Amino acid sequence: IIVVEEQLKRLGAAAKPRLHVLNKVDQAQDDEWKLLLHQKTDAYHKTIAVSALQGCGLSEVRTALCELAARTTLSFSILIPYEEAGLVNHIQTNGIISELSYLEQGIELKGRIARSLSGPLQAYL
């Protein structure tokens, strides 16, 4: 974990939310892995122990991923002019479009996109 933390710092990503998944805990020789569970747990860092073989911890991983997605995703409802139709491709490539309508005044879109990729949409939010 220390090596990963150092690499993330070098990449400028140390402050990004993270989910650490300790897999195969059913094969651990002792209980030392339990100490890793509480190394860094807050709103942006979470560690979950998993045994895919036994099915333990999988629902916690799913829940944590959904929570992470909710915190880092922007829901939007926008109307963009036809001159900016390229934004539709940006959203299709990087997000989810739940509704799309072609109106006289422009393209109406509803959906979700990662906050980090929402820059091009800012003028229409």
Molecular structure report:
With 125 residues, the protein is an alpha+beta fold. It has 3 helices and 5 strands. The chain has helices at residues 2-10, 58-72, 86-94; strands at 18-22, 45-49, 73-80, 95-103, 106-114. The strands form 2 sheets. It has a 3-stranded antiparallel beta sheet with strand order 3-5-4. 8% of the residues are buried.
In short:
This protein is an alpha+beta fold and 125 residues long. It is built from three helices and five strands; from the N terminus they run H-E-E-H-E-H-E-E.
Beta-strand content estimate: 25-35%
Radius of gyration: 20 Å
> Regions with pLDDT < 50 over 5+ consecutive residues?
none
Strand order of the biggest β-sheet: 3-5-4
Mean pLDDT score, rounded? 87
Largest sheet: 3 strands, antiparallel
Could you say which overall geometry the principal axes of the C-alpha atoms support? elongated
Q: Percent helix among the residues?
A: 25-40%
How many DSSP helices?
Answer: 3
Label this structure with key terms.
two-stranded parallel ribbon, 26% helix, alpha+beta, three-stranded antiparallel beta sheet, 125 residues, elongated
Produce the secondary structure layout.
Layout: H1 2-10, E1 18-22, E2 45-49, H2 58-72, E3 73-80, H3 86-94, E4 95-103, E5 106-114
Parallel strand pairs: 1-2
Antiparallel strand pairs: 3-5, 4-5
